[in-house]
Amino acid sequence: MRIGKVEFERNPLFLAPMEDVTDPSFRYMCKRFGADMMYTEFINSDGLIRDAQSSVAKLNIYDYERPIGIQLYGHNIESMVEAAKVATEANPDIIDINFGCPVKKIAGRGAGSGMMKDVPKMVEMTRQIVNATHLPVTVKTRLGWDDSMKNIVEIAERLQDVGIVALTIHGRTRAQLYKGEADWTLIGQVKNNPRMHIPIIGNGDIDGPEKAKRAFDTYGVDAIMIGRATYGRPWIFKEIKHYLETGELMPTLNVIQRVDLAKEHLSKSLEIKGGRTGILEMRRHFTCYFKGIPHFKETRLKLVTLNEPEELFTLLDEIAVRYGDFTPDAGIDPSPWAK
Q1: Cβ distance 319 to 299 under 8 Å?
Q2: Are strands 166-170 and 200-203 parallel, antiparallel or unpaired?
Q3: Domain boundaries in the chain?
Q4: Dist CA 183 CA 172 (whole Å)
Q5: Contacts of 260 (CB under 8 A, 6+ apart)
Q6: Which of 70, 101, 166, 253 is catalytic?
Q7: Which tens digits make up the pLDDT trace of 23-59?
Q8: 30 catalytically annotated
C-alpha cells in the first residue's frame, strides 16, 4: 500500500488524530510500539492562519515520527486552503482533512462531520486544498450525517475524483457520535467499489488483535486506524501485529510494567514540553495506564494533582510496590521487545 511517496508493509496500523491525546510524547510511545502512521492533534484552520499559539504549536513534528500527517478542520474554504499552505511549510508527509469529528462545537458550525450535510462544499474544499499543496492530501470522514443519509459510497468517489490519495472512514454516522457499534459494512462497500483505486483505511471499535484481524480479513481494508483503544495502551500496535503474524495473543502487562511505561512517557513529556506543561499534558494519560486497578481512587487523585516531577516519579514507584504483579484485563508484556 502506498500513500503519496510512503510505502507501507501489509496490514499497516495508524494512530488516529485525537485532540488532547496525540501530543508528541504520546506519539513517541505509539511509534515505539509500532504505529505505522501517526497524526498530530487536529488543528483549527482559523486558529492556524491567525497564528494562534495553541494551533501553531501542534505543527511541531519530529523526524522519528515519520510518516506523519497534519490534520486540519474548518468550515470556511478560504481559511482551510490558507491553513493547508501553512501546514505544508511544516513538512509533514501528508495533509489530512477532518470531515469526521462529530462534537457539537465543531460539527454544529459545519466543520468536521458537519460538512457531510453539504457534499458539494466538501468536495470543493477538498479540490482547492489538493491544488494548494504539493503534499498528498487525504480525508477522514464518517458513513454519513445520520441513518437517513449514509452517503459515504458517493462521497468517496467524489473525493477521489478531486485528487485525494487515501480515505479513512469511521464506521458511524455523525448522529451516533461514539455510541453503539461501528458498522464496517459500508466501509467494505467503499473498499470493494470497482471505481475506487485509492487506499481505504477503516476506523471504529478496533480495541484488540482479534477485531483487527477480522476487519482486515472480512472487509479487505488497506489499513486500520485506531483511536480510543490506544488510551493508556500505546502497545496495542505491537499486540495486534504479533497476533497477525503468529495467531497468538501476547501476555498482559502487569502494574510494574505499566509503571515503567508511564515513567518513560512522563520523561518524554517533560523533555518536550517542560515541567509545568509536560505534567499537565500527562494527567490525561496517567489514569488510563492504570485503569482497572481496584481501590485506586486516592492514588488516581494524586496522579492528577501533583505538580512536581520528583513527586510523580516517587508515586509511580509506590504504585509498582503496592500493586506488584496485579494484572489489569487488557494489555501485553513488552519484555520481548528491544527498544
Answers
A1: yes
A2: parallel
A3: 2-246, 255-323
A4: 6
A5: 320
A6: 101
A7: 999 999 999 999 999 999 999 999 999 988 889 989 9
A8: no
Closest CA to 156 of 125, 185, 198: 198
Residue 88, all three cell numbers: 505544508
Per-residue pLDDT of 74-107, as tens digits, reads 999 999 999 999 999 999 999 999 999 999 999 9
CA distances from 18 to 21, 26, 69, 135, 230 (A): 5, 11, 12, 22, 11
Three-class DSSP category at 72: strand
Tell which residue, 38, 37, 56, 35, has the closest CA to residue 47: 56
**Residue 16: closest CA among 234, 226, 260:** 226
Residue 194, CA distances (Å) to 104, 137, 189, 202, 291 in order: 35, 21, 10, 18, 44
- Number of helices (H), then strands (E), in the chain: 14, 11
- CB count in 10 Å sphere of residue 168: 28
C-alpha cell of residue 17: 488524530
CATH topology of domain 255-323: 1.10.1200
**Per-residue pLDDT tens digits for 184-218:** 999 999 999 999 999 999 999 999 999 999 999 99
Classify 2-246 by CATH class: alpha beta
Span 163-168, average pLDDT: 98
What is the number of residues in the chain?
339
Residue whose cell numbers read 492556524: 48
CA–CA dist 198, 200 (Å, integer): 6
Distance CA 196, CA 27 (A): 31
**Grid cell locating 325:** 504483579
Amino acid identity of 43? I
pLDDT at res. 36:
98
